[in-house]
Amino acid sequence: MSRHPSIRTWIRAVGALAIGFWVSPMGDAAVTSIEVQSVEPVEEGRAFGTVGAYERVTGVAWGAVDPAGPHNASIADLDLAPTNDAGRVGYRVPFVILQPVDPTRGRGVIFYDVTNRGTPVGVGLLNGISLAAGSGLGDALLLRRGYTIVWNAWEAEPARDPRMRVELPVATREGRPLTGRVRDEFVFGVFPTPIPDTATLSYAAVDLDPASARMSVRLRESDPPREIPSDGFAFVDDRHIRLLGGESFQRGAIYDFWYEARNSPVAGLGYAATRDLVSFLRAPTGSKNAVNPVTAAQSPGGVRAVLAFGVSQSGRFLRHFVELGMNRSEADTVVFDGALADIAGAGKVFANHRFAQPGRSAGQHANRRFPENWFPMSAASTTDPHTGRRGALLRGDGFDPRFIEVNSSTEYWHKGASLLHTDPLGKRDLVLPATARVFLIAGTEHAGGAFARADACVNGGNPQNPAPALRALFVALDEWVTEGKTPPASRVPALADGTLVRDAEFAFPVLPGVGVATAANRIPVPGDWVDPIEPEGLEYGVRVPQVDADGNEQGGLKLPPTAVPTGTYTGWNVFREGYPAGDLCGRSGSFVPFPPNRDAARRSGDPRTPLLDRYPSRDAYVKEVARASARLVEERLLIAEDAVAYVETARGFPGPWSEGVD
User: Fold this and answer.
1) What are the structural domain ranges in the chain?
2) CATH annotation of 7-168+266-483
């Protein structure tokens, strides 16, 4: 038995009740109290490699910030939040910790998983589970490596797990909650889900008279809206509306709804709550008022580093977190030593705003006119051509994390990912600071096929999983932070060599029956999100990856499926008839298999080289995959166990060969 007690034993030792422990809020620390609500073994005490068993700690933290403090100056409406007797603004934040029962057998490194709409997705993704398959431990890479895994709430109303909701104060004026005009947008039926009878508002409406509201509809984002008269809709209650006259919501159409809303939370405080909690958890003893439940913090060596990981919305959270200066704690210490933002594009989150709607994700078709993309985009210093302002995402103040950004091809088409490594007009390549890396995982789609949109899209979905590259890059981030080992160089398409181009220069081959993307999502200069107007020409210079004769991307990090392809992989797809046909189909990608032989290619009119001409035998194909995998391992862009898995998958590929592997 280890001489280091688990937190379960430790709680009993300090006399906590069965439900956990509670320390009274007092003093002026950012985190004022902690309650551990439960401690449970992970997978019934299963041992994870040499690290051994893990336990799951669930709890709640209370904290308070100084609304006049310089570390909190970037939080919108913090000055309008009610304060306690000490003049502080409070919050309540749920958290979960997975940690080794014996902390001395772990790495002493916290893997901080930013929740995505209330759900931690990074832990499953890096443990080898496709986002399409849900959460879980998978092959438990993170646990086998001994990380202490932490996540907490930061959104006031997560869409998935209602338990992971941060409690934030509502902005007030003269003691009354603020009200304001708000715009909601609804697009139904793009996902293969039923179209609802009612639409849910982001906020409670002040007035339930339809005459006080306004509604419009359009099929495409660029179409002029058609007004729906006030007798064409009704409030069901203060959070739901429905259409009248036998009308139902049209599949794929964009509905805008304007109304007077109430109860705007000080949403940006969720960033500060995360900053404060993580700073508290990495401290050796917590504070004089609350005991730290991370046992590694009390073990010899303590917490060596905190590495943050975010996917999609939570990747945008990390970009926004850094921009807001939140990586500098109120005690002037670094919060995240390293961060990896996955599939975030150039975006941030509509979260540090009055009447924030952090669940919005701007694309070509939906949510395009809500705040998400604003200067600065890149970690490198640039000048905004529209305002003359100079800036960079990384602040250069000594508190920046080591920062790796990874995107799929989808983010180049939808999310302005090229702006991470070009100037804002897309005219020249940038030199990134030594503390930053950017990667395109070529031929992948947003979230690696997590969303089933096949009924809405023309082409078949893209099956390529980007997780193996993310696993290797996260290990590289760890080594960068904890060992000072320089990570692999950035791998992105470039203007200089023609692998990054305007969408008008995109040269995709003509393939039978395949719909082709013709225009990337434009990234306009942000304006009024309630009554949006886009002035002509006020946009940033989005560029997209150029492709080869097969339609596969020329630049970026190529995993074995694209390095040794059996078809064409794209990060885009297009809507079929019945939707806004020809527009980008959500965040979906495409896969078009190569013809098996020359006869099949001739019959179909497919100009691409057939599989048998590329790989004359199964053995030839497997050897190519093995060579590509070995190169990536050598370059630290693939871990060894994933290289083995790629070769085994190649051996089982149902190709056009009649013979087995030599």
Assistant:
1) 7-168+266-483, 179-262
2) 3.40.50
CA distance 19 to 22: 10
Q: What whole-number percentage of the chain has pLDDT above 70? A: 92
How many residues would you count in the chain? 662
Please tell me the chain's helix, strand, coil percentages from 3-state DSSP, rounded to the nearest 5.
20, 25, 55
Torsion of CA 124, 126, 129, 134, to 10 degrees: 30
- Render 399-451 in DSSP notation, one character per residue: -PPEEEEEEEHHHHHHS-GGGGTB-TTS-SB----TTEEEEEETT--GGGT-S
**What digits encode the pLDDT tens for the residues 117-128?**
999 999 989 998
Could you tell me which residues come within 8 angstroms of residue 3 by beta carbon, excluding any fewer than 6 positions away?
none
SS (H, E, C) 442-480: CCCCHHHCCCCCCCCECCCCCCCCCHHHHHHHHHHHHHH
**Sign of the torsion angle spanned by Cα atoms 556, 560, 561, 564:** positive
What's the rounded Cα separation, in Å, for the pair 333 and 578? 54
pLDDT score of 576:
92
Residue type, 164: M
pTM for the structure as a whole: 0.94
Is residue 559 within 8 Å of residue 441, measured between CB atoms? Answer: yes
All residues at 6 or more sequence positions from 577 whose CB lies less than 8 Å from its CB, including other chains: none
Give the pLDDT score at 661: 43
Could you give the angle at which helices 640-651 and 618-634 cross, rounded to 10 degrees?
A: 170
CA separation, residue 433 to residues 361, 400, 404 (Å): 28, 11, 11
E strand map for 280-332: 305-311
307 burial via Cβ count (<10 Å: 0-12, 13-18, 19+): buried
- Positive or negative, the CA dihedral 218, 219, 220, 223 is negative
Query: Which residues are registered as beta bridge partners of 540?
Result: 523
Structure tokens that stand for 210 in this block: 């339809």
- What pLDDT sits at residue 449? 63
Torsion from C-alpha of 143, 149, 155, 160, nearest 10 degrees = 30
CA atoms within 13 A on the CB side of 632: 33
